[in-house]
Structures are given as C-alpha cells and as structure tokens.
Amino acid sequence: MTTKNYFLHTMMPVMLYGAFTGIVTGAVIWGYQFLVEKLLSVSQSLYSFVSQNLAFLPLLIAGLVVAASLSYLNTQLVPEVKGGGVPYAEGAARGILPLKWYRVVPAAIFGSFLSFVCGLPLGSEGPSVLIGSALGSGVNDVGSKNNKRRKSWSTISITAGASAGFAAALGAPLAGVLLALEECHKKFSPIVLMSAAVSVMFALITGSLLRIATGISEHALFTFAAVNFETLDLHLPLIAGIVAGLCGVGFLKLLTCSIHLMGKIKIGRYAKTVVAFLLCGVACFFFTDMIGGGAGLINDVANMTVAWKMIALLLVMRLFLILFCSSSQISGGMFIPFLCLGALIGGLLGNFLVFFGMDEMYYSTIVLVTMCAFLGSLLQAPITAVVLIIELAGGMSPLLGGMIAIMAAYLVTGLFRAKPAYDEMLENILKNRNQGKELKFVKVEIIITKSSLVIGKVLREILLPFSVTSVQHKHSQGTGEAQFKNYRRWERIIREGDVITLQARTADEQVLLNNLTDIFGNATIISE
Fold first, then answer.
1. CA-CA distance, 433 to 515, in Å (whole number)?
2. CA 20 to 30 Å from 146, out of 20, 52, 278, 510?
3. How far is CA 248 from CA 122, 220, 379, in A?
4. Sign, Cα dihedral of 347, 348, 351, 353
5. Which one, of 263, 332, 340, lies nearest residue 306 by Cα?
C-alpha cells in the first residue's frame, strides 16, 4: 500500500470516525453526567425527607418497588444494559457480542437513572462507556451507508466510543485511551491508539465547550492532598499494595461465588431486582453515605473526616450491596464503586498506620495509592491504574509510591491467579446469552476478492474477534503461515486472491460470521 493510499484509506477514516464519535459521545455524556448529578442530589433530599417524615415511608417503599419493576422490564426488553456496562462494551469491541446502538443508548440512560434516583451504590462511568461504545457503533453505521468499506471500522469505532465515554465521565483522558488498549483489547495497536486518542480529545473539547456555553462550572471529581513518599518511607506504599492485592483477590473470589450462588437460587430475576432495590433503600435510609457510587465518600475518607468505625461499617455494607447488585445484573457502573471500596480499605489502613506512628501527611496519599492499587488488582490493568493516580492527584507527586503499590498488588493477584473482574462479568454475560448452545470450534475460510476491505493491510492491523484462536494466511503468490505466536509473520501484506483460514471457539457462529463479514467486506467466507 502506497503512503497516499494508506493515508486515505487507513489514517483518514480512523481520525474522522474518531473525531465524530468523540463529538457525539462528548455531547451526550456531558448531558448525561449533568442529569446524574441532579438525580443523586434528588436521592439525597428524598431519603433525608423521609427519614424526618416517617409517614411517607410506605410511599418510599412503593416507589422502590415500582423503580425495580421498571428496571427489570428495561433489562428484559434490552438485555445489553444488564450489569455494569463496561463488560458488554468490551465484548462488543472484541467482536463477540452484538450491539444495537439505537436501543442501547436510551435503555442504558433510563436504566441507570432508575438506579441513581433510588440511591443504589452504582456509578455512572459504566453506562457512560456502554453509551459511548453504542454511539461509536452508530456513527460507524451511519457512515457505512454511503461507503460499505467503512463497515470494517466497526470494532474500532466501538472502542473509540468506549474510551471517549470513560474519559468524559471520569475526566481522565489518558486512562480513557489506555482503557482501549489494556482493558478492551489487551494488546497494543497503533490504529486503536490513534482512534481512541482522537475520540477522547474531541469528547473532552466538546464537553468543555458545552460547559462554557451553558455557564456551568467544572469541578474535579476527586480531591486528594497527595504528597511524595520520602525514600525511607517507601515501605508504606509497599504495605498498601500488598493489602490492596489481598483484598482484591478476596473480592474477586466473592464476586465469582456471588454470581454462581445467585444463579443457583431458585427465584426469578424480577424478585432479585426488587430485593436489591429494597435492601439499598434500607441502607440509604439509615446512612446517606451509601447513596450513589461513592465519589463524595471517597473525598470524605481522603480528607480524614470519617471515623474508622464508620469506614469499616460502610465498607461491609457497600461490599455486600455491590456484589448483590452486580450478580442481580442491575443497570449501573462498577468502576467508581470499585474505587470507593479501595478508598475505604485505604482509609482503614491509613488510620491503622497513623495509630502506629505514620505521619498524618501521608494519610491521603495512602488512601489514593491503595484505591488505585485495589482497582489495578481487580482489573489486572496496572498501567491504567498508574496513569489514574497521576490524573486523580493532579500531578506526579505520588507516582513512585503509586507504582510500588500497584506492582505489589498486581503481583499478589497474579500469585493467586485470580480472573479480572470485568472478564468474569463478561463470561457470565456470554454464559447467559449462549445458554443451551454448545461451545464448539469453527473453521472459517476467507478468500480475499478484489473489493475486499483489507487489501493492502497487514494482519496485525486487523482487530479479529477474541474468539479466534489461530490464523493461517496463504498468499496467492507463494505461501506462508501467520500465527499469533509468530509476530513477524503478521507483517505479511494481504492481497487479492489470498486465503485466510481462521479457527475460532464460539457458541454463536452467526455473530462470528457477521463480524468477519464486517471486517473483510466483500470476501467469500466459507464456514466448516
């Protein structure tokens, strides 16, 4: 492929689709986050009012049951919005789950709004990622109507939208870009990196312009008085990392057990949803710090305004309710709740270390590094966790201590061979979706025709579905194999007449074939 053709058919589509996806996602997520803040404020006022006027308690209970019923109906009509949002977005970006953007966007917004107004301990960043990925798919679908070649950018647009949604919701652009590489695809790809970076950039610019136009001031989600650890005090982040890693392993084990246990309980998902809403309502009625994902609580813990006994109580309650809501597949994000659990663990550890002589100036930093190490342990995404420390602290001060804590937590998690939280949730989605279907190996032969979308590209530039386990590439002039374990062979340029043979392990052959058709375009695909 010449430099001109590469620019026109690879670079330009990546940047243009990334820019459009970023603009649309930035605008939608800005409005979404604005309404989320209002709903959380309403929820705070509602529970405070009822606690002071007990005569309205029956109305609160009835409202929780109605909201649970609507939430259940919403997930029945649009199953894609069950759970945290990020696992499904990852599945769509990897090409193993279908994504109908025109119904996912309104359903994700509506379902999460129900959760927020009722005070469930769930976050807005998960739905933001799902909404962004759906909008990316929508931008790609609209663009591919006039040019079928653009259909091959579907997974890249979905990934770009997910990154933009995350960055816009959390105000963390670098973490949003790394989400695409480390979490969605678990590999480095220049095309994915470029698309995600452009999308995140335009999403943040769009959000900033809307804030200026509306006169709404921007405020940081978290405030940490983080400081640098002195050389002789570097054992402190090491302790924090080990504690965070052990707690992360424990949480992952509990998550797996809760998913299996809820699957065995012989009551309908509707009853589980109602119970989840009522339990969260009871918790919010007695403790307003239980309302929402916990961003405000993180700041309170970091500022040392919450007593250690209250931190311990909130940790236990949040842990139980987050596991219950997650295994009940209620709409709402898990990223902020994960951070909140990590901050509560860090708060307990910080109080313990201060009691045994640690300088109080390190307390907020201990909370920050423990929180990010816990997150890195759960997601097994250490680079994203390190970058998140820099972005949340607003500087490089806690970087060395944060790296020590995150690497320690990552090593502890690897020692126990725990499965990443989002991967566990994604497997559960696939299991429920493919219930009754047999998981089997499928061999697919693709003959590259003249108008195929991948001519001139190399295999490493193509985002194949995650279900693909091996690849064989046979040239029309000469033969050779390209397999995952041999990187150099991925540099082989695809030409007309080439034959690419894939082997995949899937329970839904049609989803696999649809994704391959989108990727390779006008190619002859033979399934065996």
1. 17
2. 510
3. 18, 26, 9
4. negative
5. 340
Over residues 180-197, the mean pLDDT reads 83
Asked if 343 and 277 count as a contact pair (C-beta separation under 8 A), the reply is no
Report the percent of the chain where pLDDT is more than 70. 91
Q: Residue 32 — φ and ψ, nearest 5°?
A: -65, -50
> What is the arithmetic mean of pLDDT over 137-154?
71
Q: Does residue 437 surpass a pLDDT of 80?
A: no
Which of 127, 123, 114 lies closest to 64 in space, CA to CA? 114
**pLDDT at residue 477, rounded to an integer:** 57
Q: How confident is the model at residue 161 (pLDDT cuts 50, 70, 90)?
A: very high
CB atoms within 10 A of CB 509: 15
Strand order across the beta sheet in which 521-527 lies: 468-474, 499-506, 440-452, 521-527
Alpha-carbon distance 204 to 177, whole Å?
12
Nearest in space to 489 (alpha carbons), one of 444, 453, 525, 458: 458
Cβ distance 498 to 458 under 8 Å? no
Cβ neighbours of 367 (radius 10 Å): 30
> Hunting for tokens 């002789």 — which residue is that?
232
pLDDT digits (tens, 9 = 90+) for 453-487: 677 777 777 777 777 877 777 776 544 443 333 33
d(CA 219, CA 299): 13
- Assess contact for 61 and 67: CB atoms under 8 A: no
Q: Is 190 helix (H, G, I), strand (E, B) or coil?
A: helix
312: Cβ–Cβ under 8 A, 6 or more apart, which residues?
A: 348
User: Alpha-carbon distance 288 to 305, whole Å?
Assistant: 15
How far from 303 is each of 226, 342, 363, CA to CA, in Å? 11, 15, 9
**Rounded (to 5) percent helix, strand, coil in the chain:** 70, 5, 25
Q: What average pLDDT does this structure show over 36-53? A: 93
pLDDT of residue 451: 64
CA pair distance 119, 420, nearest whole angstrom: 27
Which residue type does 511 have? V
